[in-house]
Amino acid sequence: GIGIREVLLTSGCPGTEAKCIVRVEECWGPVDCGWGIPISEGLDCMKMPCIYIPPENQFKYVWKMFIPNKSADVLPNDSAIMEVCRDTHSVTFQCETQENGNITASVKYTVYETTEMETKKSRRIATGQSRRATTDAILVFCLVTGIIVTVGVIFVMIFMILHW
Fold first, then answer.
1. Which residues cross the membrane (predicted)?
2. Which residue, among 41, 22, 29, has the nearest Cα to 4 in the 3D structure?
3. pLDDT tens by residue, 128-149
4. Domain ranges in the chain?
5. Euclidean distance between the first and the last CA atom of the chain, given in angstroms as a whole number
6. What is the DSSP letter of 58?
7. Whole-model pTM?
């Protein structure tokens, strides 16, 4: 499929850089690019991009909608970016990028229903709070251990000074 890749150098970069870009090149790999990440995603709507390289108009874009237990519907949208709003059921979209009648890339997106997104968001918040509590406990443990070690070192230094 079409795409852009950065060729990185991990040693011999100028200055103190750990990585540096040697070149950016066009790559042609497998057609199925897997699952994409939306450009923008909110609770109500999201924007999904097809895979393309400039100029955008050199390709044809075919959007398909997959609803469980139904056949795929080809959508009239032929642009590189499609905006959809959430519905009462989850829907999977696929965009095929075509050049000269051949599919050069394909990417899929799942748009979850509104209630499922709210459930995922609340689950993420709950998980984040439990992680925060674990992180806080680890920080308190490290702080207490550091204080004990520091006090111990001070006592050892005082003992050494007095017996010298």
1. 138-162
2. 29
3. 555 566 777 788 888 899 999 9
4. 1-30, 31-112, 116-163
5. 76
6. G
7. 0.52
The partner residues of 65 in beta bridges, in order of sequence, read 73, 93
Q: Distance (Å, rounded) from C-alpha 158 to C-alpha 35?
A: 64
Q: How far apart are CA 2 and CA 53, in angstroms?
A: 7
Classify strands 91-99 and 60-66 as parallel, antiparallel or unpaired: antiparallel
Place of tokens 């995922």: 120
Residue-wise pLDDT for 11-69, tens only, equals 667 777 777 766 665 555 555 566 777 777 777 888 888 887 777 788 899 999 987 77
Beta-ladder partners of 103: 98
* CATH class belonging to 31-112: mainly beta
* Two structure tokens written together for 150: 């520091």
Which residue, among 29, 50, 27, has the nearest Cα to 38 in the 3D structure?
50
